[in-house]
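Next comes a single protein record:
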Amino acid sequence: RDHIFEDSYRELSRRSLEDWKHRFYIVFDDEEGPDADDILHEWYSLLLRSMFDPVYALFMINPDDGSTYLPNPLSHCNVNHSQYFKFIGRTIAKA
């Protein structure tokens, strides 16, 4: 869970678009979950929250309202920013 964004990106970026059309089965390292649906829901929640972590410099809080996010114009400081945005788009569409 500490590296959910990087781990999920690394695993899912290897998957075909056809794989993205099917239900994901999520397993956290060294854990057995009681219910696959609960784990999937938790994974989505943690992953979506991590996407907005300032460490990735992908998004910034909108200075006009302070409650929404905008793409960070400095996201290019992250060498993987284009691939990360693609991954984020697919993940949000799937959620």
Q: What stands out?
A: The beta strands are 59-61, 69-71. The chain has four helices and two strands. Residues 4-94 form a domain with the Hect, E3 ligase catalytic domain fold fold (CATH 3.90.1750.10). The chain has one domain: 4-94.
